[in-house]
Q: What sequence folds into this?
């Protein structure tokens, strides 16, 4: 699961482009996590503004 800080996210689409599971999507200028996220962290590592954080089960 990915935690998205919507106040920091600039909706550039970098995370969408690098996600190996195609689990992120920009919908109406809003980033949404889709089914299939493996919590690999690729998107969080590539985010230029640090708006994404990997959350493992049990973290909220």
A:
């Amino acid at each position: 699961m990915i935690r998205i800080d919507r106040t920091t996210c600039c909706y550039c689409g970098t995370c969408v482009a690098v996600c190996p599971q195609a689990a992120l999507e920009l919908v109406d200028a809003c980033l949404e996590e889709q089914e299939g996220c493996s919590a690999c962290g690729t998107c969080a590592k590539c985010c230029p503004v640090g708006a994404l954080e990997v959350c493992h089960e049990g973290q909220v």
Observations:
- The longest helix spans residues 14-18.
- The helical segments are 14-18, 42-46.
